[in-house]
Each structure stands twice: as structure tokens, then as C-alpha cells.
Prior knowledge:
The complex is a heterotrimer.
Chain A: H1 2-23, H2 55-62, E1 65-69, E2 72-73, E3 77-78, H3 88-99, E4 107-111, H4 117-122, E5 128-129, H5 137-140, E6 144-152, E7 154-159, H6 169-174, E8 178-181, H7 185-190, E9 197-200, H8 203-211, E10 217-221, H9 222-231, E11 236-239, E12 246-252, H10 257-273, H11 275-281
Chain B: H1 11-41, H2 47-54, H3 61-99, H4 102-117, H5 120-133, H6 141-167, H7 170-178, H8 183-213, H9 225-236, H10 239-271, H11 280-283
Chain C: H1 2-6, H2 8-41, H3 45-60, H4 63-73, H5 83-109, H6 112-120, H7 125-164, H8 168-175, H9 183-212
Amino acid sequence: MKLKKLSAVAATATLALTLAACGSSGGATPTATSSEPAAGGSSEPAAGAFEAGTTMAKLANAGKIRVGTKFDQPGFGLKGLGDTPEGFDVEIAKIIAKGLGIGPDGIEYTEAPSKLREQLITDGKVDIVAATYTINDKRKELIGFAGPYYEAGQDLMVKKDNDTIKGPDDLKAAGSKVCSVTGSTPAETIKKYTDNIILFDVYSKCADALRTGQVDVVTTDNVILLGLVADSKDAFKLVGNPFTKEPYGIGYAKGDTKFCQFIDDTLKKASEDGDYEKAWTSTAGKFSPKVPKLPTLAPCA
Amino acid sequence: MSSVLYDEPGPRARRVTLYASVVAAVLVAVLLFLVYRRLDQNGQFSSARWSPLLNPGDADFSAVWRLLGGGIRSTLTAAVLSIVASLVVGTVLASLRLLAGRVSRLPVIGLIELLRGLPVLIMIYLVSRVLPEYGLDLANPLWYLVIGLTLYNSVVIAEIIRAGVASLPRGQGEAALAIGMSPSQSLRLVQLPQAFRVMLPSLISQLVVVLKDTSLGFIILYGETVRTANLIIQETKNPIQMYLVIGALFVLTNYALSRFAQYVERRLSRSSSAEVIDEPVTAMAGD
Amino acid sequence: MGVLIDNFALYRDGFLVSLRICLYAMVGSLLLGTLIASFRVSPVPPLRAFGAAWVTVFRNCPLTIVLFFFAFGIPEVGINASFFTFGVTGLVFYTSAFVCEAVRSGINAVPTGQAEAYRSIGLTFGQGMRFIVLPQALRTVVPPLGSVIIAMFKNSAIVGAVGVGGDLFSVGESLSSAQGNPVLPVLLGVALGYLAITLPSAAGLAVVERRVAIAR
Lengths: 301, 287, 216
């Protein structure tokens, strides 16, 4: 009787560990490769065009690139109901892949939640990270940044008739309830201005809460807010100006200067031949039509 | 058949009960109708909201259920891992408490009482925020969820085991000592195996609790059922329908498990000599 | 530890919000739970069925889903209220199922012979309830009911996580951030806040149990 119980427990434990090993979501589970056509029409370099031994040559030869991106950020990396994520970050990743001669089918997407982005690179689980990844010095100690490819800014969204809030400094005085998303950088930043914060796990809940009047302000990256405003059928508006500057960069393994140079060159080419613009208008541009200019690229360390 | 509250109904009582039944049935029907009408007025019965969940022909159906399937699998994974770990840790805690001397028992009891006083959510959140600071940065939030759930449930299970061992006939422990076993041997070889049989219904009830608690994983962004549902609702915009569907899934599963626990309890009380632990009400009192 | 002292006002306010949630939910779930229990033990079949369905649903559905349903599903049909109201309502509905079962177990624990005895000496239903049945039922009810209420106090943390804001859990969330606050003290402060509600309640329950216990 006892042996049967023990083996039942052991069998359950093995089953559980197997389930955990192959099935659990969140973290570093790769998903199916993309099946969307690439944007733009510039020519693809041949695999042999790269210096032997560089990351570019390795990736081009393998015909595959592993990209870490967000799955829950509207406009930048949102998986929704599809097989692969869609958004501006995803399009930038596709541009880089194209520069290596890898088509959209050769991209393997992994979810890169904010806290794990450095780890994914240092553990070698992805080749690049394009996941609303703000460049800062602390992160530069662990990984390298190419770009920036976009400059975001955090902003506030309120109901159309709200005139009390003009900027983050008004929040505390007005006693406003602020909503943001768990684990996001804007959620961390807004804590500097107020304590009256409500966090949800998805953006739509913040929008719903604003609509029903449960919260007074929603804060996150301004482009995502524009998407929510567009969805709201004119009930919301953005206030003031973005009060942070968040340069988004492409994360790569520290020290790989040649790879960084390649990414920077690819980005510059894309902004010149229209691929960058196409990447924007097909994704985040749907709610923010003004196409941003590629920011001045930082030198590769 | 009389009961504590009312005697065997006579003809007048039967008539009154009949009238009351009719009135009650009508009231319930009216209530349901009002709910139905309110839902209908707000378009909650439209196919746009229901078909991604229920209509195989809908374009989104397979995507929705594929994602939900992943979420359900994550829920089950977390639940099974947690319950197994809780069993192991709970047995250790209970053994410590049963075998330790009077003084060394106190820290264990103190720990148990402390962990029982904290909400599971706080334990999970604490684990997920504090462990990374001390170097244990786990890629998959699954492990924080499992550690948090284990901390909480192992304590409950330790108490169930203690009650189980205490309910055994004293003769068992005494006989074991009489033939020369040490107290820990007696516990390990004689008392715990019998206690487990007796505790089985309570353990199954605790599995129900664990299954429900895995839904707290959404706080740490673990992709279990509730979080997956939230992500899907962003696209399909049908919260009422989605929550009804996953709520129904949970209710059905947990109800089946509870019935199974009752069945096991009935079979055990027919065959075993020890009393079956009457923990079900309090065990399920936890969220 | 300095962070606890610096933000004491925040913790105190969060504690009070959590306490309010607990108290409102306790009153509400005791009332509603007893009502559902009365449905379940009544001789009227439709009420019994309603009560049984209620208990089955709310005992087996995770509190998280109940709360999300109230907070985000109900507004879809035009009923708007604060997250606090929705949260407390959800918690009340959820806990009422457990209260109902605890109360029912109390009533069922009274031997039928007691009822037959009081009927045979001529007491009315009301007198029998007041002097014979309820005192005995209450003694059995106290332990499980007490643990249900303490479990509900702990569940108030989940209410905080689903949008209420300003309760102990939200305080913990907003303080444990990149502001440079060391995480462990912040969350230990939150834990202490909850223990300040649950430990005295558990101690109080133990006292009540001892005074009310019958030697069986």
C-alpha cells in the first residue's frame, strides 16, 4: 500500500515536471516562427557577404535568428490571438533579419518580459532583444545596446473632460488614482510622483477602469496611450507632453561591437530607403500617424 | 422523517410548503428573467461575444482555445507541482512537530502559525520580489508561484497530517514502540502510512484549494488561465462571457474533485478502523 | 527598516482600507451566508436548489475570477460602482458559500432527538429554536465559521490586487519599486499589517471556542 502510494506520488511528480519542462508559458518559451511577408523591397545580401566568424555570418548561415520581444504591448509587440507577435519592435527585428538574409519565417520569437530582458541575452537564449527596451547605464553593464531606433516618452491619459491634470506633478495634489500595467517601466516611473497607483496585468483593464471612472489617469508610453485613445471612441485624451525620454535600443550580447555596427548600419539604411517608415505606418502608425525620425545612433562601445 | 428544524409535515404543512414552493419558483424565475433581460439589453447574448468561445466555425475560435489550452495547462502544472511539494514539505513539518521535544517544537509551531496568518497572495508576491534580490532570479514566474503556494499549503497539510496521526488508535504507536522501533521509525513506518489513508479526502480538498489559488499567478504575470483570459479579452472584448466560461471550467473540475473526495471518504469509512478526518469544511474555507 | 517609519502614514492608511474591506465583507457574508443556509435547509425545493447551486458555484470558482467578473464584467451591463464596492461584493458572495456550509453543519450537528423532545413537551418552533436548537448549533458552528472568517480576512488581499487601490497590498506594490526601497522590509511591513488582523482574530477565535465547547 505504501509502495503504491509512493510510486503514485513519484509518477505525479515526474508528470508535473515534464509538464513544466515542455508546457509552461511565460518566461522563455519560444513560439512558432512568423509567417507574415516582409515589408519593403530592398535586396537581401548573400550569406557569404559577412566576415567569417562574426555573429552576422553565423546567423546568416543558420538562416535563423532568435528575437526577444514583448507579447503584450499594443503597437510594439502584441501577440493577441495570432501565432506571432505584431508591432513596431517586431518590424524592426524583421528589418534586421532581412539585413542578414533571413526572411520572416526564420525568426523565432521569445517573450521578453521587462525583468528578464538582460537575462535572455546573457544566457544566450536570444540573439537580439527588441522589446520597448530603454537604454540606460545600469543595463549597459550587462549587455550592449544598438540604436536607439525610437524615442518614446511616458505620458498621461485622462477622460476628455478632465482639466485638472496637466502633468505628472498635478497627480499628487489632485489625489488622482493612476493606473498602469504590472512590470512596466512607466509603472515604476510614476511611483516617483504619486502613491495612489493601481496596477493591472493588461492595458485594456486600465482603459476600462478609466472609462467607468474607477481611475482618473492611465499612464504608459505615449504611443500605447494613443492606441487606447483611438480605441476609446473619443472619450479619452492625452495631456501635456511626454515627461520622460525613453530611447529604445536593440539589446545584444555585450562586447559584440561588429554586430552592433551591423545593426546600426541596417537601421540607418532602413530609414533611408523607406523600410523604417513602412515599419511604423503598418504598426504603431495606425494610432500615431506622424512617422518618427530615426534618432541619432549612439556609437557602438 | 423529521429533522431538527421541522417535524414530519402533515396535510396543512404540505399545502403550505406547496404554495411556498410555487411562490419561490416564481421569484427565482423572475430574478433569472430580469438578469436575462439586462444582459440582453446590453448585447451580451450577441454572437459576436459568444462565438469566439463557443462556435468552432468562428475565425478566432481555434486561436482562443489554443491560448486557453496553454493557460489551462499552466494552471495544472502549477497545481500539481505545488501539491506534490506541499505534501513533501508538509510531511517534514508535521514530523518535526510530532518528534521534536517540547522546546524545539516551539519554533516550528511559531513558523506554522505565522505562515497560516498570511494571505497566499502576499506570500507569492513576497517570494517573487524578494528572491531575485538575493540572487535567485528565476526566469519562469511558475517557480515563484509554486514556492509561494507550497509555503502556504504545506502548513495546512502539516496540520492535516498531525490531526490524522492523532486520530489513529494509540495502540498503533504504542505497539510500534513496544517492538523496539524508535519514535521516528514508528512515525515513518507505522503511523504516517495509516494517516495518509485517513487524510486522503482532506488532501483532495486541498488540491481544490490549490487549483483555485493558482489563479493568483496573474499578479506575477504567470500565464495561467485567468491571465490568458485577460489577454484574450483585450482582443475579443467579451469579459462576461469569458469569465463565465473559465469560471464554469473551474467549477466543474473542482466539483468533480470534491465529489471524488466524498467518494473516497465513504469508501474509507467503510473499510478502515481509524476515524476519517472531518477537515473538509475548514480545509475548503481557505481561498 | 527606515522605509517603514518614513512611510508609516501610508501603511496606516492601507491598513485601515484593508480593515474596512474585512469588516464590511464579514458582516455581508455572515448575513448572506446565513440566508443561503436557510434556503438550503428549508422544506421548499426551489429554494433548496437555488441554495445548492449558489454554494456549488461560489465554493468551486476561484475568488480571482469572481472579482474580475464583478469589476469588469458587471460594468458591461451598465452597472457602475467603485472597485471597492465591486470588490467587497465579490468577496461577500464568495465567502457566503463557505459561511452557508459552516452554518448548515452546525444545524445538522444537533441531534434530531432534541427537536423531537422539545416538540413533545409542547414548545413552539420559535421557543425550540431559541432555547434548544440554536444554542447547541452555535457551539458547533463557531470553529468552522471562525476559520471561514479568518480565511476571508486573508482573501481581502486579493480584493486589493484587483483594482481597489490604497489597501495594504497596493501599498506594498507601490513602495517596492525602483525608487530604491529595499523590497524585503517593505513587504514585511505589509505582512505585519495582515498579521495584525489575522493573529488577534485567531487568538480571539481560540478563546471563544474554548468557552463554547461542549464535551462530547
